[in-house]
Amino acid sequence: MNQNNFSIFLKILIFSILFAEGNLLKGADKDSNDKNTPNILIIIADDCTYNDLPLYGGKNAKTPNIDRLAKEGMLFNKAYLAEAMCQPCRSELYTGQYPMRNGCAWNHSSSRPEVMSIPHYLRDQGYKVGLSGKVHVKPQKVYPFSKIEGFDLNCVRNPTRKHETGGIKKFMMDAEDHKFCMVVALVEPHVPWVMGDASKYPPKEIILPPNIADTPKTREAFSRYLAEITYMDGQVGDILDTLEETGKADDTLVIFTSEQGSQFPGCKWTNWDTGLHTAFIARWPGMIEQGVRTNALIQYADVLPTLIEIAGGTNLPRNFDGESFFNVLTSKKKFHRKYVYGIHNNLPEGPSYPVRTVSDGKFRYIRNLKSKELYIEKHLMGWDGKGTLNNPYWATWVRASWNNKKTYDLVNRYMNRPPEELYETQNDLYELNNIVADDSYKNTKLKLGSELDRWMKSQADPGALQDTQEALSAARDGKHIYGPKLN
Known about the structure:
Alkaline Phosphatase, subunit A, nine-stranded mixed beta sheet, 2 domains, four-stranded antiparallel beta sheet, alpha/beta
């Protein structure tokens, strides 16, 4: 080869390498039908306390379909979300950002208009992205999911509309030239607890969790709640059967998560473990081992970065709060993050009552920023505005408190909270023993308190000032007062 020809060959070689590297970095030209790039199916329950599921130690509910899914994939023992309310936790899941950054830091509020979510990122990777069921995130510009019919989107309808799988099957089958990413957001077991067969759970035979007061009205309500869990499990089974019918099950990553805790005192709307801890199962034939459990600590903000990596993307936005746990899914790593974080802003669910927390998976530190106030949650403790008591059992807790110390302690725990709380969660799953005053845990308290300070600063979180009507009203209008910049 003469010198001139060699020079031409060298230029072609360099250009080919640079072109290949460019495409590798962008991930934009990745073949969306690559056998190593799966379809993605995310199934979300609604208001289901993680440890009411038998996979996490629940003593009552029957969930054969969720149990089967776990046997075929990986179960995360320590998965968390940042705010135990429907809208903020879904916004975190879909954006890869904590509530303060994406802007949805209260229930029934909006994310910042410039935020991007799953549809934006995965469509760039060649995916068809849709959602069936409960939406409960806004604005639509931030969450431009294609609408899929078939599952009820109203979580308080009585009764829930019967679900149909034709819409999700069509969405799966129509994606022949593309991979699909589909969210099926169920509305059970959100209140009202009216679906399923409560006779399968006789109130007197129920084993109540230790954070739930034992009254006849509570047992009746818990029976109906358990029936809805089983009803929800049946929906999960129908969704998985539909996926099998399409012949795409082997090429699909399936994720099931239970969202935040149920609408019982001490679960939803709290920063305790039974509020922020979520069930999380992932199945991906040929890539995820079957029947394994992991103690890797993950948070909802980590899900989108993981999906982007799975879809072939490599350049993640700098404003993500989460990081991909792909290597945990494939059993290449046993650990993921050191801490998970949580916030609670009580408006508009009741009077202002901001709470912040951090956990390392073993210990949880909580800071109640208005501890001198009584905690009140209008849905759980009050009327629906139409003459009906939302949760009749709460009044029986208060009534029983005068002669039942355990019930009194649970009511007092819920309404009258100290400035700081510390729990050894690994040995106190329901976080009923506050050890913040125990000197032997002084260093743990200081370490976690310092980490919480660092995290709040990174999120431009002003603390108590965040949970004000001024800040909430501004956020609803798309004019967020607090929070970090997106860039």
